[in-house]
Amino acid sequence: MYEFIYYRVEDVMTPEPVMVDKHVTLSDTEEIFEKYDFNGIPVVDERRQLIGMMTKLDFLKAFAFTEKSKTPHYDAIMGQKISNVLTRDPRVVYPETPLTRVVQYMIETGYKSFPVIDDDRVVGIIAREDIIRALRQAAQGEGPARGGRV
């Protein structure tokens, strides 16, 4: 397990993740969630700068009705742009962020994934599954793939 302290985000993140822009509909994101089983999708502008994150929880927010509100038709909800429900200003991490810090962020926030930012652009995403894989590798005595120590 000692090796885990040497892991950084860049060692286990998914580079070049699927990203969407804020004009995508809930229907479009449902298809992405279904196809890839992602927990969250970075929402970016044309320069790949982060606008927010679209999570499955955000998706469900579109279906939160009160007793006093009129329930819209399913197709009307699914045609909405994700900009109405996405998480703005999500916590981000950087390629050089230690995984020990990411674990702490996940515990503090309950988030399942974080966008990875480098030079103000989304370059990857790191999820709980990536951390679990790194923990298993460290338990087997494997250091980060880059071979160096921090």
In short:
With 150 residues, this protein is α+β, with helices and mostly antiparallel strands.
Description:
- The protein has 150 residues and is α+β, with helices and mostly antiparallel strands.
- It is built from six helices and six strands.
- A three-stranded antiparallel beta sheet has the order 1-6-5. A three-stranded antiparallel beta sheet has the order 2-3-4.
- The longest helix is centred in the last third of the chain and has 12 residues, at 128-139.
- The mean pLDDT is 91.
Topology (elements, then pairings):
Elements: H1 9-12, E1 14-15, H2 26-36, E2 40-44, E3 50-55, H3 56-61, H4 74-78, E4 87-88, H5 99-109, E5 113-118, E6 121-127, H6 128-139
Antiparallel strand pairs: 1-6, 2-3, 3-4, 5-6
Features of this protein?
elongated, alpha+beta, 150 residues, CBS-domain, 3-stranded antiparallel sheet, 6 helices
Average predicted local confidence, pLDDT = 91
Radius of gyration, CA atoms, in whole angstroms: 17 Å
The shape, in one word, is elongated
SSE pattern, N- to C-terminal: HEHEEHHEHEEH
Q: Detail the poorly predicted runs.
A: none
CATH superfamily membership, which one? CBS-domain
Strand order of the largest sheet: 1-6-5
CATH class: Alpha Beta
CATH topology: CBS-domain
Distance between the termini: 16 Å
Count of separate structural domains: 1
The percentage helix is 25-40%
Query: Structural class, please?
Result: alpha+beta
Please tell me the CATH architecture by its name. Answer: Roll
Number of helices: 6
Count of strand segments: 6
Largest sheet: 3 strands, antiparallel
How big a fraction of the residues is strand? 15-25%
